[in-house]
Amino acid sequence: MASRFSVSYWLDATGEKEARARALDIAVEQTVEIPREIVPRGYVEDEILGRLENLKSADAERGGFLAEISYSEDDVGGDFLQLLNIVFGNSSIKTGTRVESLQLSDGLRKLCPGPRFGAAGLRARTEVNSGPLIMSAIKPVGLSTSELADLTHRFALGGTHLIKDDHGLVDQPTSPYPERLKACVEAVAEANASTGFQCAYVPNITGPASQIFERAFLAKEAGAGAVMLAPSLVGFDVSRTLAADPGFCLPIISHPTFAGANVITPTTGFSHRFYFGTLQRLMGVDAVVFPNFGGRFGFSREECLSILHGCTEDLGELKPIFPAPGGGMTFERIADMQQVYGNHVIYLIGGALLRESDLASACRALRARIADLSLPAN
Amino acid sequence: MASRFSVSYWLDATGEKEARARALDIAVEQTVEIPREIVPRGYVEDEILGRLENLKSADAERGGFLAEISYSEDDVGGDFLQLLNIVFGNSSIKTGTRVESLQLSDGLRKLCPGPRFGAAGLRARTEVNSGPLIMSAIKPVGLSTSELADLTHRFALGGTHLIKDDHGLVDQPTSPYPERLKACVEAVAEANASTGFQCAYVPNITGPASQIFERAFLAKEAGAGAVMLAPSLVGFDVSRTLAADPGFCLPIISHPTFAGANVITPTTGFSHRFYFGTLQRLMGVDAVVFPNFGGRFGFSREECLSILHGCTEDLGELKPIFPAPGGGMTFERIADMQQVYGNHVIYLIGGALLRESDLASACRALRARIADLSLPAN
């Protein structure tokens, strides 16, 4: 028999009987997808069919039930997208059903070696041994390559550790991908040469299905410091493939665009901890962008804490990664954010910095402010 | 100035002032993503920044407002994923915000030539000139290739027009993809030779990012009748790329697994009409699987009607496609479904057929029942 992994689902059932029936339906829906009474005896029934391992009430405040269902590695068949299909395929179309967490098996750890760099690797590459990192974004779409490269240069002069493309920058005629890549890598290198920092330019490789790997390797060859992609748009296997490729070997930052519906309704989709934590680490992502609490989006402080937990909890060989909260961050928010994220965070500050006429000075002031507030231990 | 396309969003605002403010926020969020007061004058402000074109109350029963926002083709830059990123990128993370519809521009029609076959092309290939088509699925995962090929053979003997892989069948050791592909194509060909039907085997090509196009072309070379994929897993540009490739030239069927959160909450995500209609046609999909009303999932009759509308409404050169409702369909439901879908439908019936000991006879009975109920005109 193959090893089994398991998924915990929250169900909004009102009583245990209903919860059990719904959980057993999920065990069928996510595996054999035929009526239980015609499931072939033997291997299919004993191995492939999902198994309800545990059912208990959720905490009183939330209500409902938590059902743990185990699945066979045989069903995954070495295919990451099939793993996701088992975790939440057709059952994603049911209301009152939410993926809470995934309990890994050894086979899954082999299929998903996880982040190549992780938080520690990103620290090493940017030479930030302690305290939070800072990331910003060059934007908006419509600026020319030289204007974007100039922004990049000023961010780097100010010591912004990671300088990423806006997620809307792709290959528009105003700034074609290869041209922007070259100009921004040069802009960062020039600034680093004068400051001694190890700032990194992070191009957005989200693009046509037939070109995504080409754009990733172009970034590598050009000397980019990392790449950014949006898994909800390019598909959920691109990052895992790149992270597992020793010939690629660049950190990967994931962006939440187009993914909102997966998390924002508390009774459907995925828990924040799973979606922005576990799933990202399975995909080999090294830092995950998400909306900070109290910004332009509706994530709560508790949800953001759960993301931090998902990014850092012990998953064996799957390295801890950085949460990168953004979306309406300002200088004034930093003290409050430090209380939640401590030192294990990348602050993504875009618009608030772009307001400043002396961008490099503003970045330096931000670095100083963060250093002042940093906890003594890493 | 480039042409503009527009997106209609539903907003749950309580008054016009709030609705206007929220719509203007979306126009910024989806394009420049910097505070409005620092948007560069000239090209970026005049062209790239989203423009609120219209704002009106939604119907009284629903409440809220409908905001139409236009965007520039320049922002898309010839990239389909960037189009989706503009339609609903970061704003997907906001509650009370739902994409209702997309109004195309000429440039988008060029970027998305749409389904190569469409409903009419699928009719021609399967030689079903009028009335609904029938699709079924071989399953469950865990059966051997010869067992799956045997099911395929019996479905084809009974005249099931499209015989697809269960969406959980990928490349498991019990039935590796190339082996299953060959065996099932042969099984259908043998049955067709004896019946004179033009039934088609539809392998599931959902798989690793680095192998997806290879699997598609393997299917083509092996003589499959169409392919199936899950856009929410493989990414949203794979289907469009295949449909636009004259060297591929096979119909594409899309599966909704993992996509549920995008539609099931009425105040977030996408309207059913857009997600299972417009979007599929932009992706070049020829038939779209979704859960039928009254089955195992919660779609309403009205939502299914709106999907039919999205699959068939006039979008210029983007061909009409087939809705393929499934998920708990039984013989008894057909009369009711005919009233909703008329003849423009593919009935996806899986489990109910697999219960039958004489599968081929059951399929023939189903064909006869559907023919009896079919409307006189196509």
TrEMBL record, chains A, B:
Pfam families with a match to the protein in the record: RuBisCO_large
Domain of life: Bacteria
Protein's name in the database: Transcriptional regulator
BP GO annotations: carbon fixation
Molecular function in Gene Ontology: magnesium ion binding; ribulose-bisphosphate carboxylase activity
Domain Ribulose bisphosphate carboxylase large subunit C-terminal: 124-288
